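User: Show me a protein chain along with its predicted structure.
Assistant: Here is one chain, sequence first, then structure tokens.
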Amino acid sequence: MKYLFAAAVLVSTAFAGMSAAEAAGGCGPGFHRGPYGGCVRNRGAVVVAPGPVVVRPPVVVRPPVVVVPRGRGCPYGFVWRYGRCRPI
């Protein structure tokens, strides 16, 4: 019975220590926490108005670009090193 009583006291103490959470982060009504932790006044009501309807022209599908590799960059007996043709 003493364990049940101790558990009840522990639970009631835990619930007594809790309070309602403040959404303002401790700054009070009309304020909120800023980026550096200070209290900042809330701005006015935010109203989002619908924007204008934008009609875009249809997308034109172009044929793919074919890239043909060039021939040898350096003549035979040379290789491309350090930004230029160098002999082998």
